Each structure stands twice: as structure tokens, then as C-alpha cells.
Amino acid sequence: MILLIIIGVLLFCLSILIHEAGHFFTAKACKIRVDEFSIGMGPRLAHVHKGDTDYSLRALPIGGFCAMPGEDGQDENGNPCVDPHAFCNKPKWQRFLVLIMGGLMNILLGLVLMAILLGQETAFASTTISKFSSHSATQSAGLQVGDHFTSINGYKVRTDKDLMFALALANPNSVEIQVKRAGKAITLSNVKLNTATASNGKQTTQLDFYVQPIKKTPLTLLQKTFTDTVSVVRQVWASLAGLVTGRFGLNDVTGPVGLVQVISESASAGLQQSFLSAVNNIIYIIMIITVNLGIINLLPIPALDGGKILFLIIEAIRRNPLNPKYAAAIESAFFAALMIFMVIVAVSDVMRISTGHGLGG
Hints:
Elements: H1 2-29, E1 36-50, E2 53-67, H2 92-118, E3 123-132, H3 137-141, E4 148-152, E5 155-156, H4 160-169, E6 175-181, E7 184-191, E8 195-197, E9 203-205, E10 209-215, H5 218-245, H6 256-271, H7 275-297, H8 305-318, H9 324-355
Antiparallel strand pairs: 1-2, 3-10, 4-5, 4-6, 6-7, 8-9
């Protein structure tokens, strides 16, 4: 078990490493000097200096950074930065590439991890019903063999992962299902699903149908890798929307502390089958995390890559950068809020692990 947790932590660090590597190598290609390349935040544990860059390992595995001169338009003394290798003195398109490549590399890593998982399968799941189990509630509601799912409660279904995600979020006592049958769109309203009671007392949806397999070929593997990764991206956005609207609470958010528990639980479940199943469970979790990291970092929030891209777009529209003092103040405020949020999530994780309930109840 300890080995599996170490594998999980290393894979998590890999997602941070590849994110910062996206920034680093793009900056180097654009001849931007990188003063420090760090994995982790907080106190420095070890470092080595090579060329113009300090390569650091820091204590807190909650992120990393590439420190480039002139990121805020100023030098270390607060004066306008005149260094030709400074970030602020490069063309806007180069700065844009440097900023966006971190998130894109995370999504690329997600594609690779997804391909590793799918490559082990003998066939892929579709969204077309092949048969029903006995006493099927969905069959009684009107679904038929050959029906192709297109929507669950308004959530578009393009892959089996979309189908599982939408059904997991749905109220099992009343679900609206849209399918395509013989080329025609069919809508079934107020469908009641079979459920079972989990150990925590919550009701979980029980699928009572099977779907047709998709033959595994190099082409279908490539297609499935892309569509399933897009499905994870959509789930990220749907989850973020749920946080904003209040559908999900703080208890549904997991930070680095809770990640260890998630990896441990997934590894334990996988070990009931085999060591490979445990590793695959961890890979799947890290795949979701790295896609999350890529997407969230590209949101237009100051202190994140997306916020810096937003400032860059504003600079392009105004044809003049924002006042460095104002930009720095905005980023500092959002960074402080982000750190406070991460502390709250960490406390909630600890409470959930020790008592079974986080701050969200």
C-alpha cells in the first residue's frame, strides 16, 4: 500500500513538473531567462544552479513556479525592466505561448495517461444499449435495445464517461433521458432508476442495462483517448459550475491532504482485484487531477496563468500594459485569497479524514 501511495504522489508531482516544464521550455525557446524553476512551494529543501537557472525542490507539493524577470513589468528594484531577456520585453504572442503552455501540457499528460488506461482494454464502451438486466427500471420506463443515449437531464452524452457522470449527478427518482431511436429523438421524463444504499447511507444509482462494445483498433483507441479526455474536461467545467451555483459544497472539494486518502482508498479497492488494477485506479485519479490543473490554471483569475493571459489581452486592447503596481496588487490579493482557500480545504480534508465530515457538513 505504501508503494502505491508513493506512486500516486510521484504521479501528482509529475503533473506539476510537466506544467512548469511547459512554461520553462517555451520560455527558453523564446530566449526568456528563467531565474528559478521550482517544484513545490514554501521553504526550499534542495537546489542546484545550472546556467542562468536555479532548479529547486520545495517543501509543499501544492504547485510550482518558473520565475522569470519582468513578469510584472519591473525589475527587482521596482524600476521599469530593460533586460532584453525579460518576460515583459518579449512580443505578446511569445508571452501568450509561455503562459498557456503550462495548462496545455497538463491536458497533454491527461491524454497520455488516458491512452495508457484505454490501451489495456480489449474493447471500448459505447452509449448504445445492447441488453437489459432483470427487473430493469429503465426498460420498464420505455428504453429499448438499440437506443443511443444523447442527453441526461440536459447534460449532453457523447461517451460512456458522460453517461456515468450524468447518471451519478441525477436524482434517481426523477431523470429525463433523451435517446436516438431509429434516427428519431425520443424523450423519456420522470424515469426512476434502480438504487442501492451505500455504507455511508447515501443512495447510489445502479445501472440496469448493458451497452454495445466498440472494437479496439489504433483508430478507435485514438478517438476514444481524445473523446474521453474531452469528457473529463467537460466534467471539470460542470463541477466548477456546480461550485458556483451551490450544487456542490466545500465537502465535495479535495486538496493535497485529501488526495492521499483518495489514492489510498482507490488503491485498496484496486488491490482486491490485482496490483495492476490498483495502479490503474491511481493513474485515472491523477489523469483527472492533471486535467483539472490544466483547466483551472487557464481560468481568467488573477494569480493564475489565465489571469496573466487576461492582463495580456487587456494590454493588447489598450495597447499599453496595466500599471504594474495595480496589477501586482490585484494578483497579490487573489493569491492571498487562493492560499486562504487552500488552507480551508486542507482543514476540511483533515476533518473529513478524522471525523467523516468536512467543513461543509
